[in-house]
Write the structure tokens for this entry.
Amino acid sequence: MALYSEKVMDHFRNPRNVGVIEDADGVGQVGNAKCGDIMKMYLKIEDDIITDVKFETFGCGSAIASSSMATEMIKGKPVEEAMKLTNKAVAEALDGLPAYKMHCSVLAEEAIQAALEDYKAKK
Ligand code: FES
């Protein structure tokens, strides 16, 4: 069996929503101390709906694929729904990650949570 699913490879090679939102309503940055990877999420929110989301990931392929998939999963969704996005759901949407790469999807969950917290704090 291939180590990485087609979906992981696709999101790694063609990541969706890469970039920066200059006037973001919420920004969150997290890192993993062990591998040194960093992920930053930018959210644009109108009437508690996530209208746009962009990310920058300085990290491994699984982290890039996870952030790409996670942005797709929360775009157009209400804030409350995005709050509930788990790394498990992200990994499942990617048709799975190797066990030792699950922490990469945790970064995506945490970066989104951090950006949403930032948005709530600013409100
Ligand atoms: Fe660090 Fe994947 S190895 S996020």
About this structure: The first strand starts at residue 26 and ends at 31. The chain is about 45% helix and 20% strand.
